[in-house]
Amino acid sequence: MEVIALSNSCEYGQPGIFRGHLSFDSPRLAGYKWEICEIRGKKPGPRLCICAGVHPNEVSAIEAAVRLQRLFDPEVMEGSVSIIPLINQPGLFQYPQYVCPLDGKNIEHTFPGKKDGTFSEALCDAIMNEWSIGADCLIDMHGGDLRENVSKFVMYQDTGDPQLNARGRQMARCFDAEFVLALPRRFMEKAGTYSPSAFATHDRIAVLPEAGANGLLTEDTISFFVEGVLNVARTLGIISTPATEIRNARVHCDDYLWVYCPAGGDFHFEVEPGDSVTKGQRLGTISNLFGETLVELNAPDAGFLLWRITHPSIKEGSFAGAIGIEENRSR
């Protein structure tokens, strides 16, 4: 990868605050550059990578990445913090929901990618194997696209390795989340998957915090991301300020079930993110434009609604929400 510094920046790789632009090696990514801020302490230490804007409408995460650039002091920290506030550069000012406009792929479901693949595939490969290589943790911030409402939750990957699991869980618990979700191992077997799952296949740690709603910028959501990231930095030993108080109970979940609509129409939800649900409980109804109920949508298992779509018009086969299954619950 290549970096070009702004005029008010230190030299890349040296103690201080680097601000500039990053370009990656793959020809598939030619013509694009990424804003990057890297703060490096005078003492060597851990490396933390932070990104947002895989989905450009998830603006509270992007704003958190901007603010975090000014919350690390190279004079007193150890190691380095590298921040890319907007991953999906082709989506800037295009407002795409979930996808990269160049290839129609959801970048977050494309890891680990491949260098000679489509734009999204090459970008995922570059994130893993160029920018964040050697990092002790990647924090991939998400949540609150234009037509979704998301509870405060954090995902990490269950690997079967007790030490790696414990470290991932420790990083995830740094966020004041309602739910901490250990993604089941089937996510590691997918060809295109989440960043925590892809990183885990290489014995690396990534966590994915989610929060927000409807593409709106809110201080509560921004604070969720900022304070969680700072707590991760404290846990890694990059900074030594006191940890932020955790107020939520943080229910631990170990399965993640998406709920899809069996028919298209107007969906009227009857539960909200954070609500507990029982197996078979009605989540809502889908009706036509005559007000006639076409079908009921029911919970596939007992758990908690982690997020839901807020726009009532939903196509047949489209996702409507997702259920987190509480850890250690007998099924």
What does this structure look like?
The chain is α+β, with helices and mostly antiparallel strands and 331 residues long. It folds into 2 domains: 235 residues, Aminopeptidase, CATH 3.40.630.10; 69 residues, RNA polymerase II/Efflux pump adaptor protein, barrel-sandwich hybrid domain (OB fold (Dihydrolipoamide Acetyltransferase, E2P), Beta Barrel), CATH 2.40.50.100. It contains 5 helices and 17 strands. The strands form 2 sheets. Strands 7-8-10-17-15 form a 5-stranded mixed beta barrel. Strands 14-13-11-16 form a 4-stranded antiparallel β-sheet, with no helix packed on it. Helix 1 packs across helix 5. The chain is globular, with a radius of gyration of 20 Å. The model has no long low-confidence stretch (mean pLDDT 97).
Secondary structure elements and their pairing?
Blueprint: E1 2-5, E2 16-23, E3 34-40, E4 43-51, H1 59-68, E5 78-84, H2 119-131, E6 137-140, E7 148-157, H3 162-172, E8 179-183, H4 195-200, E9 206-213, H5 219-236, E10 251-260, E11 265-269, E12 276-277, E13 282-287, E14 293-298, E15 303-309, E16 313-314, E17 319-326
Parallel strand pairs: 4-5, 4-6, 6-9, 7-8, 8-10
Antiparallel strand pairs: 1-2, 2-3, 3-5, 7-9, 7-15, 10-17, 11-13, 11-16, 12-15, 13-14, 15-17
Descriptive tags:
Aminopeptidase, 5-stranded mixed beta barrel, AstE_AspA_cat, OB fold (Dihydrolipoamide Acetyltransferase, E2P), 331 residues, 4-stranded antiparallel sheet, 2 domains, alpha+beta, zinc
